[in-house]
């Protein structure tokens, strides 16, 4: 089996590569990424791309001709990946997350790829009062990021629904990501809480603590992708959108803060009870995921995610109380690239300044360290 993972040099990519290499030791795995965050390694002495057969660099908006030829599955992780970045780069978010995802899927179908996997998001439910949201319930995306995800899903339905030359399309609506990574992000709610508690002995909940969030560890996201790359059509049809997570991992934000404080005794928790209502609050129903993929259900508990974050950050000697200005906040990385003239406002690489080497736009295939050809 030959698999291309776009956007693999981010937060979730290392877990996906690790999972696929472990579960499919004979598979040919390639990565394709523009390299915004390639340097943001955390807590590892081993380059996660060693588990790839090859790493390519390039912009998914302008892939080299023939990029998708010869693959059995394409996993589309490449995205402007959160609300702060989506707010700062709304047009680019829609271009990459939606427009480019659709063009990649069309090219994949034309190239004879059998499975296309899209990392979508439960954020498409936005503000959802009442019961847990199921896949057929109304959507209410309130951010550019969420709108781009559902826009892509709707367009992908036509490709997988008969116009895609037999390609099976799977849109995985992931719960909010959390957990340790070889390229850790701290701009995620649970990760932020753990980092804040470790660095300052205090964590602050900016909302009143009542919003609901479903959580999923990166390791469980990777296991879901492993299922999707050769999903039988009988399990969901030619184009499937499915919530990925578990019912018991729907949490209110204040409960997440309490769990972190319990894992780190002495942590002071401050909740802004006077805050206005958060515009993103949703519980999610994961019954369809349980039915379709019983062997790929989430295994990592909240306590385990917290413990692994504590262990990983402690191993790094993490003590940065000002981490929200660091490279573990993805928006800050993009801003630093732009300030140095490496990226323009459309987030395209510019000609490198003296002494600075930017990833080339469309290089030839580059062998990853330890790659097998």
Task: Summarize it.
By secondary structure, this protein is α/β, with parallel strands linked by helices. The chain is built from 10 helices and 12 strands.
Description of the molecule:
The chain has a seven-stranded parallel sheet, with helices on both faces. The protein is α/β, with parallel strands linked by helices and 373 residues long. The radius of gyration is 20 Å and the shape is globular. It has a domain at 2-184 and 215-248 and 278-301: Rossmann fold, CATH 3.40.50.720. The chain is built from ten helices and twelve strands.
Q: Strand arrangement, largest sheet?
A: 3-2-1-4-5-6-10
CATH architectural name of the domain at 2-184 and 215-248 and 278-301: 3-Layer(aba) Sandwich
Classified by CATH, the class of the domain at 2-184 and 215-248 and 278-301 is Alpha Beta
Strand content: 15-25%
Mean of residue pLDDT values: 91
Examine the coordinates and then state which fold CATH places here, giving the name of the CATH topology of the domain at 2-184 and 215-248 and 278-301.
Rossmann fold
Residues in helices, as a percent range: 25-40%
């Amino acid at each position: 089996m030959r698999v291309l993972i776009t956007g693999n040099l981010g937060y979730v990519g290392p877990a996906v590569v690790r999972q696929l290499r472990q579960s499919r030791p004979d598979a040919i795995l390639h990565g394709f990424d523009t390299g915004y965050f390639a340097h943001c390694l955390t807590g590892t002495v081993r380059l996660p791309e060693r588990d790839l057969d090859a790493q390519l660099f390039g912009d998914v908006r302008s892939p080299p001709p023939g990029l998708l030829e010869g693959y059995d599955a394409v996993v589309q992780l490449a995205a402007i990946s959160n609300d702060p970045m989506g707010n700062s780069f709304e047009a680019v978010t829609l271009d990459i997350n939606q427009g480019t995802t659709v063009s990649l899927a069309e090219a994949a179908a034309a190239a004879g790829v059998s499975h296309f996997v899209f990392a979508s998001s439960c954020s498409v439910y936005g503000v959802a009062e009442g019961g847990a949201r199921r896949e057929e319930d109304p959507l209410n995306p309130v951010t550019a990021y969420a709108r781009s995800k559902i826009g892509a899903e709707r367009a992908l339905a036509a490709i997988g629904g008969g116009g895609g030359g037999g390609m099976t399309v799977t849109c995985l609506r992931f719960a909010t990501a959390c957990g340790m990574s070889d390229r850790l992000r701290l701009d995620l709610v649970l990760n932020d809480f753990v980092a804040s508690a470790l660095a300052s002995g205090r964590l602050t909940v900016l909302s009143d603590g009542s919003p609901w969030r479903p959580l999923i560890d990166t390791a469980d996201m990777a296991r879901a992708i492993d299922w999707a790359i050769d999903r039988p059509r009988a399990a969901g049809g030619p184009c499937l959108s499915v919530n990925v997570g578990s019912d018991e991992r729907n949490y209110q934000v204040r409960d997440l803060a309490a769990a972190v404080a319990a894992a780190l005794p002495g942590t002071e928790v401050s909740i802004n009870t006077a805050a206005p209502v958060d515009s993103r609050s949703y519980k999610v129903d994961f019954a369809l995921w349980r039915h379709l993929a019983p062997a790929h259900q989430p295994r990592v508990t909240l306590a385990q995610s917290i413990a692994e974050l504590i262990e990983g950050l402690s191993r790094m000697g993490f003590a940065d109380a000002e981490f929200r200005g660091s490279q573990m906040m993805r928006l800050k990385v993009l801003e630093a690239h732009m300030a140095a003239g490496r990226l323009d406002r459309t987030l395209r690489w510019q000609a490198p300044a003296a002494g600075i080497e930017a990833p080339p736009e469309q290089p030839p295939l580059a062998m990853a360290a330890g790659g097998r050809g």
